[in-house]
Design brief:
Number of strands: 7
Helix content: 25-40%
Structural class: alpha/beta
GO biological process, one term: methylation
Pfam family, one: Methyltransf_23
CATH superfamily: Vaccinia Virus protein VP39
Distance between the termini: 33 Å
Keywords: Methyltransferase, Transferase
Protein name: Methyltransferase domain-containing protein
CATH class: Alpha Beta
GO molecular function: methyltransferase activity
Largest sheet: 7 strands, mixed
Strand order of the largest sheet: 3-2-1-4-5-7-6
Number of helices: 8
Radius of gyration: 17 Å
Amino acid sequence: MDLKEFTITHAKKHPWEVARLKALHKILAPVMFEGITALDVGCGDGFISGNIFNSLTSKEVTAVDINLTDELICELNNRSSGMKYCREMPEKGAYDLILLLDVIEHVEADRKFLTDIVDRYAPRDGKVMITVPAFQSLFGRHDVFLGHYRRYNLKELVALTTRCGLKVLSSGYLFSTLLLPKLVLYKLLNIGKESDGVGNWDRGEVITRVIEMVFDSDNSLLISASRLGIKIPGLTGWVLCEKRG
């Protein structure tokens, strides 16, 4: 979750967040291993980094977000071993896996930013996972609220990563079921507050589980299709990359 949408008392996770975590598990499974070193840039409230590595007994994960408070850093660092949360990027280090999950759209000079991250922290054959909001035609008030400069289609995202010294191993979209509602409600009808997002979820357990199942099925289909070379459009774009030698 973006920390602009986070409150310390927030208890319920939006179905989108849970389904996103499950999708990332599927995508990253081939590159996960015991003893992995990982850097989560723009970790938000720590939900992804705190769960994506749970199956590993040995790992060294550094999770960074400039908006983390001292209180949240203390809480997150006390949850599990092998995790370190902080506000500042490490001075140096070579990481097996770098996560940039809904991050580069917040950076005006995205190519320079990504190139610097790759050059500084990714060793040869190091893996980089990137997710972004998809399709500039859907850019709206909520993007402005979150501080986004742009949205990307998959072709643009692949081109950007290639220019930054990365080789794309796999790519695709997530959340195809949200494309039409996003287009109709936010663009055509102009309905919805700029601050509407995953931080305001307060629905009951039954409807939450049903929506999670719909999103999970949707994403599983899209990931399977992407492995066959079929790129079904969705609200989120992703690439799993490797640093070129």
